[in-house]
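Feature request disguised as a bug: please show the residue count (69) next to 2TM domain-containing protein in the output. Example input:
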Amino acid sequence: MNNEKKFDKNRVEEEKRGFVIHRMVYFCVITLLAFINLTFSPEFIWFVFPLIGWGLGLTIHYINIRNLV
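Example output, currently without the count:
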């Protein structure tokens, strides 16, 4: 039973670390896309589409992490 709890604790910590990495990559890429969009084609704001789509995926990732705890 002790090994099972240790495995679950390690899995939760690994999932949390994965979420933090996912969140950092999200913010870096969205910032880069916003910069590219506003620099080269400011007449059409298209970076909001990946912002919303990927943001939804990030939200689902967060909800899954919260359900593990």
